[in-house]
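Summary: Need help interpreting a holo structure output

Steps to reproduce:
1. Submit the protein chain below together with the SMILES for zinc ion.
2. Request a joint structure prediction with the ligand placed.
3. Inspect the structure token block that comes back.

Expected: a single structure record containing both the chain and the bound molecule.
Actual: see attached output.

Input attached:
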Amino acid sequence: MKIKTKGRCVKCKELCAIPQAEQHILNCSLKSSTPTQQESGHLVLIAWTFQPHMYWMFVTLPKTASLSLLDAFLRMEWLECCGHLSRFTIGDKGYMSQTECGNPSQCMKKQIGQLLPYGSICDYVYDMGSSTRLTIKNITEIPFCSQKKVEILVQNEPPKFSCEFCKKEPDNICAICGETVCSSCSSQHSCVVDEGDDYVLLPLVNSPRTGVCGYTGR
Ligand SMILES: [Zn+2]
Ligand SMILES: [Zn+2]
Ligand SMILES: [Zn+2]
Ligand SMILES: [Zn+2]
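--- attached output ---
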């Protein structure tokens, strides 16, 4: 089932879908920018590769942002469960988060602006086992961009799920089958019954990694 979500603009709180978001951001950031933020940066769309209209966000990156800055942001915001490897793939080249001996790799020190021209996309994967894949598009240069950090401008609202039994809003997702259940019904879920334990249930959170590995949210 394809799910589309709307996103809320952090600055003005307006709701918009992906096709309108880019124009909205450019208008909105011009209106709200302050003269102290004079430097430009990159406007980037990050989306879950499996369902790009479900989990997504528009962010700005400082002009000289490295892959490792974006990697750290993605882990903090959406992905980190237990320190898995990650990799950007740009064209036919891969950029890993760690070397084979486990040290942070030099690869991710490279600047995004030099690798990913405006209008082009790259792939990102977190965890080579139970992978979460993202598609990242460097859309355009944006004026008045924070040079200190990755800044979220618009992020998807949580997709609507319902409890498989009572149809109310669920707060758990099953790590085995992906079904969603509320706390009152969770003991009836078939995987919980089979396992004789509810450790298979994880908190349902607004991230493409919800229900995967041990992910419990940021
Ligand atoms: Zn806005
Ligand atoms: Zn994990
Ligand atoms: Zn329920
Ligand atoms: Zn299940």
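--- end attachment ---

Reviewer comment: The mean pLDDT is 93. Residues 174, 176-177, 179, 189, 191 surround zinc ion (ligand 4) (CB under 6 Å).
Status: needs-info
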